[in-house]
Amino acid sequence: MVARALATGLHCDTAPFDACGTCNACRTIAAGTHPDVR
Questions:
Q1: Which of 3, 2, 17, 13 is nearest to 27 (CA)?
Q2: What is the pLDDT of residues 6-38, one digit of tens each?
């Protein structure tokens, strides 16, 4: 969980270092389909 939250914060398109939860990067990480996050 902590690793996923960190990855989301680092990849967020809207709010760097603070995940917005609504941008494409945040949604794909939450869905488990982001190509850079496993």
A1: 13
A2: 999 999 999 878 899 999 999 999 999 999 998
| Residue 18 backbone phi and psi in degrees, to 5 | -145, 105
Residues 6+ apart with CB under 8 A from 12: 18, 19, 20, 23, 25, 26
Q: Where are the domains of the chain?
A: 2-31
The four Cα atoms 23, 24, 25, 28 give a dihedral, to 10 degrees, of 120
pTM above 0.85, yes or no: no
